[in-house]
Each structure stands twice: as structure tokens, then as C-alpha cells.
Amino acid sequence: MKKAIIIFCMVIIAGCYSKKPKSTTLTGKIMPPISLLGFDSTTVFHTDSIKTGKPTLLFYFAASCPFCRAETRMLISDKQPLSDFNIVMVCVSKFSEFKKFYSKFDLQNHRSIQAGVDANDSFKNYFATTQVPYLVIYDKNKKLKCIYLGKTSPATIKKAVST
């Protein structure tokens, strides 16, 4: 029984470290319109307002997910590995949990990051997912390049737009 639990845990942990992009029929499609409720609960950010010219990362996350928190730490590190990206953090959690997450990671001080709650489940419905972390990478023309499931390094994300 003990071995079964250890093997199960190893499978779960291994599954959270994505190496290959997820196969999708959405590759090459233009970014969908997604509206996010901002930290102040009155501002709404629309993905339609993202300008072309820079690649974009849509990061679907849950505030309570440890892998999502680790991914966030990488995205906001002092080295700013993805400073040449538009980063949009799409939260699936309750608004109260999102506010704690937003404050904990001091996201208001990261100008290249937009974050909010997907109150209408637009992201979840368009990408047909409930998994987090879920990273969607768009090229500078807002066309989908690839999707990664699980914790993904900034180097992998950057490489995705260069191929």
C-alpha cells in the first residue's frame, strides 16, 4: 500500500512538469475575447485590448495551487525572464482568493502583467480545460503558438515563440 501511494504521488508530481506542448486544433487561431475582473472589482480587462507586436502569455491559474504559485514566482522574478511578453494572468478562483494572491505577489507593481478573475468562465470554456497551471502562448500577431500544462520554465515559453 505504501508503495502504491508513493508511485501515485510521483505520477501526480511528474504530470505537473510539462515538457511537450499540448496538442490542440486551436493552433494558429486568433486570441479569443476574454474579460477579466480586476483587483479593484470594478475594472474589467479585455484581451481584445492587448496590442500586437509582442508575444502574449495567457496564464490560467488557481490561487491555491502550489504549482501556480511557483510559476508566478518565476514570472515575476527580479530577472524578469519574460519582460518582452504581454502576460495575462487568468484566475479561476473566487474573487476573495484572487485578491489575497494578487497582494501576496505584489502584482500591481508588475506593469507587464494584467491579472483578473475570469468570472464568466470564458477561458475555461474556450480552451475546454479545468487544469492549472495552463499556459497559452501567442505570437506577436496574437495567433496561438502552443499550450503547456503544468509548471513551465520561462526558457520553454520563450522558445515556443521563436520556433
TrEMBL record:
Protein name, entry field: Redoxin domain-containing protein
Q: Name one Pfam family in it.
A: Thioredoxin_8
- Describe the location of the Thioredoxin domain by residue ranges: 25-163
| InterPro entries named in the record | Thioredoxin-like_fold, Thioredoxin-like_sf, Thioredoxin_domain
